[in-house]
Write a structure and sequence with these properties.
The chain is of the alpha/beta class. It contains eleven helices and 23 strands. The structure holds zinc ion (ZN) (2 copies).
């Protein structure tokens, strides 16, 4: 079924959140799926649908570059209904553009996940939830000593025969590999040919390995301070003299961006603020890294595929494996933006930028989304003063709460 023609939509009586400032008493006009006017004085077309933001915020839709699932579904379940379940849940938490993220798994499981996302993307309409901009190929190329809560059996070093097929149709837009694995540079070079954002994650790489990866195109590190090398972990790997690793490389290299899981459970406020102060809003993304337990009751769930993914528990605040550690977040980007604003020196425009324009820039889609700007897609949120999502519009169409 095709989406019926959309009448002009005007959202008014709200504070506009722009990348560097707030404008009170603003409005946004959306026509044919795009933003056509924005500011304090926007004329209302005769046939427009008028939405009152009631003095709340008018925000750009959020963009999540690292997310595994929600509402009971993991993208690795690898069915179109599972993909739609997860994107619907995230849209209602403010994510209007999403990069479904793989975990470790057998080659057929990764292929099946890509097929399900490809089909969900092809048949997508706003009522389904977040727009799929592409897949984040995250697992399976993790370092053996940094696998975290992911399935160990599904982890391996990159194999060109395998990944060439995954990259073929440019569905993959973000590509992760641990820099120290044999074949990592060839993997990065292939990902660069396909113009992906190239990232190093679940890695125990030292400075020299990061430098080689950077030359091959790597420009981002997954969830800062989680499953990555540190001076201490490199001492275990190499002994003394102690060495610099991913943390130092990212902080010392202006071109490098990274991301934080700002749920308040993974990182303390001072670490979140430190990352923000060191990298700035233009090189730090907020991600959810959310698993299937979003909007689900506390309990036991599988991480990754519902056939054979390892179990974790959710207490409603965070995922964890008892006796082992955290197993990613169970909340949406709305929560991350709110927590970042509340507990660090980031302003509201900064916090929103890190969840919208910055991930858009890093993934090369900022021409069409990521901020409230004339000509961009009408991906717009209405937030109340406590930053809860009241309405989410994607291409000017409201995501229904059914
Ligand atoms: Zn991870
Ligand atoms: Zn993850």
């Amino acid at each position: 079924m095709k989406t019926p023609p959309v009448p002009p939509l005007i959202i008014q009586n709200g504070t506009l959140i722009l990348p560097d400032t707030l404008i009170e008493g603003g409005a946004v006009l959306c026509e044919r799926g795009k933003i056509t006017a924005i500011g304090k004085q926007v004329a209302t077309p005769k046939n427009a649908v008028v939405i009152d933001a009631k003095g709340g915020y008018i925000s750009p839709g959020f963009i999540d570059i690292h997310v595994h699932g929600g509402a009971g579904a993991d993208f690795m379940d690898a069915t179109v209904p599972a993909v739609r379940t997860a994107i619907k849940a995230h849209a209602l938490h403010g994510t209007t553009t999403i990069f479904p993220t793989t975990t470790t798994g057998a080659p057929v499981q990764i292929m099946a996940m890509l097929s399900a996302c490809r089909e969900a993307k092809r048949t997508w309409e706003a009522a389904h939830g977040s727009r799929i901009a592409g897949v984040h190929l995250y697992g399976p190329y993790f370092a053996a000593d940094k696998v975290g809560c992911h399935s160990r059996t599904g982890r391996r070093a990159p194999n060109a025969v395998e990944y060439e097929r995954w990259f073929r149709d440019d569905l993959v837009r973000i590509a992760t590999c641990a820099a120290e694995l044999p074949g990592a540079e060839e993997f990065y070079q292939t990902a660069r040919k396909h113009r992906c954002l190239i990232t190093c994650g679940h890695s125990n790489a030292n400075w020299a390995e990061m430098e080689r990866a950077f030359k091959a195109g790597m420009r981002h590190v997954d969830h800062f301070w989680c499953a990555m090398s540190s001076v201490a972990s490199l001492r275990t790997r190499f002994g003394t003299p102690m060495q610099a690793g991913m943390e130092q490389y990212v902080l010392a290299t202006a071109e490098m961006s990274t991301e934080v899981i700002a749920d308040g459970m993974h990182l303390s406020p001072e670490l979140l603020d430190f990352a923000f102060r060191m990298k700035g809003a233009e090189k730090l993304c907020l991600v959810t890294d959310c698993n299937r337990a979003l909007d689900m009751p506390p309990g036991r769930y599988r991480f990754g595929s519902d056939d054979d993914g390892p179990f974790f528990e959710s207490d409603g605040n965070v995922g964890f494996v008892p006796g082992q550690g955290l197993a990613s977040s169970v909340v949406g980007l709305d929560h991350m933006v709110h927590h970042m604003k509340k507990s660090t020196s980031a302003t509201l425009p900064d916090a929103v930028r890190m969840a919208s324009l910055t991930p858009a820039e890093r993934t090369g889609i900022a021409k069409t989304c990521g901020s409230l700007e004339k000509g961009k897609q009408a991906d717009v949120l209405i937030l109340n003063r406590r930053l809860n999502v009241q309405h989410a519009f994607i291409g000017g169409v409201e995501v229904p709460r059914d």
